[in-house]
Design goal:
The protein is mainly α and 83 residues long. 69% of the residues lie in helices and 0% in strands. It has helices spanning 11-37, 40-69. α1 (11-37) runs antiparallel to α2 (40-69).
Length: 83
């Protein structure tokens, strides 16, 4: 048995990156701008939606780059054995 515990790979980092940098920072920026200008829900809603869109864009971009790096599977044979 290996001595090292199993790794979650890049999945945990991607989740924290998406949730932390895009969604939360855009929402906090919206709250700050609403506080400064006195328009409470306007900037918060707009920047939160923009942060969600940016997070999805980043997630799709990362998943496409990870899919390109993955080697293709060998074709399966009809008899179920190795080619």
């Amino acid at each position: 048995m290996p001595d090292d515990p199993p790794s979650n790979g890049p999945n945990v980092r991607i989740g924290f990156l998406v949730a932390g940098s895009e969604m939360v920072s855009f929402t906090l920026a919206g709250l700050f701008l609403d506080y400064v200008f006195g328009t409470l829900p306007v900037f918060t809603i707009v920047l939160t939606l923009l942060g969600v869109a940016a997070a999805f864009y980043l997630l799709v971009k990362m998943s496409k780059s990870l899919a390109v790096k993955k080697p293709p599977k060998p074709p399966a044979t009809s008899d179920g054995g190795t080619p």
